[in-house]
Amino acid sequence: MSSDTALLVIDVQESFRQRAYFEETYVSPFITRLQALVDGAKEAGIPVVQIFHVDPTGPFAESSGYVKTLAPLTLEPDAVFRKGRHSALVGSGLDVWLTENGIRRVIVSGIRTEQCCETTTRHASDLGYEVDYVGEATLTFPMTDAAGRQWSADEIRARTELVLADRFARIATVEDALAQRSKKLAA
Fold first, then answer.
1. Residue 155, exposed/middle/buried by CB under 10 A (0-12, 13-18, 19+)?
2. Chain centroid to CA 168: how far?
3. Between the CA atoms of 161, 130, 34 and 179, what dihedral angle is there, to the nearest 10 degrees?
4. Could you read off the pLDDT of 48-89 as tens digits, one per residue?
């Protein structure tokens, strides 16, 4: 593989449309940014890796018919993995694939910002990968905490970016993440 970078598209699957908290209003801006990232990665020769979350039952079960790409995103992944944990690097084989393909930098995108995307980012950093976390290419939904305060999706994303920044990842826009690849090629 000619790239030392891979784009991880985590859990961007129809299963989420079956959850009570799913809000369609958040999908369009997310898909727009993620599609730009996927298309830019392909153009730059960065492999696109799709990861699906699977459970034994419910909408995340393979048999549900919902473990497929969330519409209207279109992508042709270079590799596909299935996971049953929050981190895409646990029990999926992704870590082996990254090592075998000489990947040292990952770009993280997907659903949910504060769960699987954040967990994978922390795990990848702890394993020694350079990580670009592209918050605008992640999706989450409002949540209510134990005290009854509702946190907006934007607040959750800001909190996630705050705790990841310069500790576990470089917080990047779509353009930043793709430009980083261009700089490495020019070097």
1. middle
2. 15
3. 110
4. 999 999 999 999 999 999 999 999 999 999 999 999 999 999
Task: For residue range 163-186, list pLDDT tens digits in order.
Answer: 999 999 999 999 999 997 545 544
Give the Cα separation of 15 and 162 in Å (integer). 28
Nearest to 140 by CA among 126, 150, 125, 130: 150
Distance CA 10, CA 45 (A): 19
Contacts of 56 (CB under 8 A, 6+ apart): none
What does the angle CA 14 – CA 127 – CA 134 come to, to the nearest 5 degrees?
Answer: 45
**pTM passes above 0.85:** yes
Q: And the tokens for 111?
A: 């659903």
Instruction: For residue 137, give the amino acid letter.
Output: A
Are residues 144 and 20 in contact, defined by beta-carbon separation less than 8 angstroms?
no
User: Going by C-beta distance under 8 Å and a sequence separation of 6 or more, which residues neighbour residue 142?
Assistant: 21, 23, 150, 151, 152, 153, 156
Instruction: Outline where DSSP puts E strands in the chain.
Output: 5-10, 48-53, 79-83, 105-111, 130-139, 143-144, 150-151, 170-171
CA–CA separation, 105 and 174 (whole Å): 15
